[in-house]
Amino acid sequence: MNDHEHYPNPSVFDGFRFAATAISKASEDGREPKTLSRVTDISPTFPFWGNGTQACPGRFFASFQMKGLLAHLLIKYDFKMANENRQRTWQWRTFILPISGARLLIREREGNPEQL
């Protein structure tokens, strides 16, 4: 994923890298994009789930579970970095990981859990 041939500025984080590609390809053709890039998409240039006949059949279930967990956490809890000025991640080759000493403050939201 650090290949300059496939990804412009591969060492810089761009959360919309793949969504922007789908939008720009459609606009070059003068049409609306059918769909934006999804987490379950497979591609030879981004083999996260494998590719072709070797693509992971459970990727749709995994995607659904990740989205459900993220929605639950965002609805039930507030998140804040303990030190907002500190570096948050470190990078080694294709890995971008949180700093091991970084502290995340998590607080359960107030109110009736049934309403959240």
Features:
two-stranded antiparallel sheet, two-stranded antiparallel ribbon, alpha+beta, 116 residues
Descriptive notes:
The protein is α+β, with helices and mostly antiparallel strands. It is built from two helices and four strands, in the order ααββββ. The model has no long low-confidence stretch (mean pLDDT 78).
Brief account:
The N and C termini lie far apart (38 Å).
Secondary structure topology:
Layout: H1 17-28, H2 59-76, E1 77-81, E2 89-92, E3 95-98, E4 104-108
Antiparallel strand pairs: 1-4, 2-3
What's the SSE pattern? Answer: HHEEEE
Distance between the termini: 38 Å
Structural class: alpha+beta
The quaternary structure here is single chain
**What coarse outline follows from CA principal-axis ratios?**
flat
Average pLDDT reading: 78
Strand content: 15-25%
Helix content: 25-40%
Please give the order of strands in the largest beta sheet: 1-4
Number of strands: 4
Q: What is Rg?
A: 18 Å
Individual helix count:
2
